């Protein structure tokens, strides 16, 4: 496997991640994807990593760095998705390793993410990658 993991920063690079991202986030319209990512980059410090193999985007991750009272600085993974056609080839593990490296470089004490309770396959993957369940994530809609 010859892979390249790089930040997607130009409109063209961001747009190239859409087809993989929509597998996790199908509600996002293609024409709104680049503006939405750009907006989150500007307002929230969102980072977008694209894993390419053979020139094709195979996996993507979005993340941000946050400060919390209980753990100081952390890297929070908003989205991590591997193209369903090429799962179980090590792409997800490579992205997690890169995110951990990024977190350490930025002085983060930990990496966090949430995953819906129905995503059992993803949970097995996260356990293999050294994540554990430490709390419940509560949510209530406001509108």
UniProtKB/TrEMBL annotation:
Q: Superkingdom of this entry's organism?
A: Bacteria
Query: What InterPro entries does the entry give?
Result: Acyl_CoA_acyltransferase (IPR016181), Bact_Acetyltransf (IPR050832), GNAT_dom (IPR000182)
Alphabetized, the UniProt keywords read:
Acyltransferase, Transferase
Instruction: Using the record's annotation, list all stretches that form the N-acetyltransferase domain.
Output: 1-143
Question: Matching PANTHER family, A to Z?
Answer: AMINOALKYLPHOSPHONATE N-ACETYLTRANSFERASE-RELATED, AMINOALKYLPHOSPHONATE N-ACETYLTRANSFERASE-RELATED-RELATED
- Tell me the protein's name: GNAT family N-acetyltransferase
Q: Which organism is it from?
A: Luteimonas endophytica
């Amino acid at each position: 496997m010859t892979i390249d993991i790089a930040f997607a920063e130009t409109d063209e690079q961001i747009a190239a991640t859409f087809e993989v991202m929509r597998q996790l986030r199908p509600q996002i319209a293609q024409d709104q994807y680049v503006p939405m990512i750009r907006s989150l980059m500007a307002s929230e410090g969102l980072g977008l990593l694209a894993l390419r193999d053979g020139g094709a985007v195979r996996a993507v991750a979005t993340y941000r760095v946050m400060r919390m009272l209980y753990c100081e600085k952390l890297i929070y993974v908003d989205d991590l998705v591997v193209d369903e056609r090429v799962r179980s080839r090590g792409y997800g593990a490579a992205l997690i390793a890169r995110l951990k490296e990024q977190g350490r470089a930025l002085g983060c004490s930990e990496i966090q993410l949430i995953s819906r309770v129905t995503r059992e396959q993803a949970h097995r993957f996260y356990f293999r990658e050294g994540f554990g369940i430490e709390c419940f994530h509560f949510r209530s809609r406001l509108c």
